[in-house]
# Entry
Amino acid sequence: MAESILLVDDEEKVLDFMSAYLQNEGFEVTTAQSGSEALNKIKSVNPSLVVLDWMMPNMNGLDVCREIRKSSKVGIIMVTAKSDEMDKIVGLEVGADDYITKPFSLRELLARIRSVLRRIGDNPASTDETLVRDEITISVSQYRVWKNTEEITMTPTEFKLLLTLAERPGIVYSRLQLLKSALEDELLNVERTVDAHISRLRKKIEDNPSNPKYIQTVYGFGYRFGDQP
# Structure
């Protein structure tokens, strides 16, 4: 079955250009030209991934991304003309899985789409393994996380980062190691993208994100999971 992609951009020519290429690559493609239309299409189409333009009138891509993340784990690639690194980090912090900067080639877009889809579809275990780390419970095969009895909604990227760290408590991972092992993405060459995902993850699982118990910073190197099994 073909993967379903939702393309969101206010420029019809851009949508036609991307849509024709991705359809030729075997994807089912749906388009939307506004944020509100995109939110409605997500409910009706249930896409595997959303390619979302940042700069749109009325409701920009960041606002759309925030709304999507209130109820959906769908993969999101943010498209931005902003080249500043901090602008890209903002997109990740509101819940995007990846970003791509204009101008970009269709081959790069395809590579990023396939990378995020692999991340979403790559089940790390065939058995229903469960990790328990103090208050945190992780169902590996179900991609579900609980803190005590409350389930925590995770994006695929957040889940894989948490799982990588929690599988080996106390082991320190560099940002580059997390990019390669948890995100499995050689295209993300900005190591600070890990910081953005970690920041969102901490807000979800830590009682005090500024003084984390679980995902601890090892200054000058990277991160470790602080709880011991």
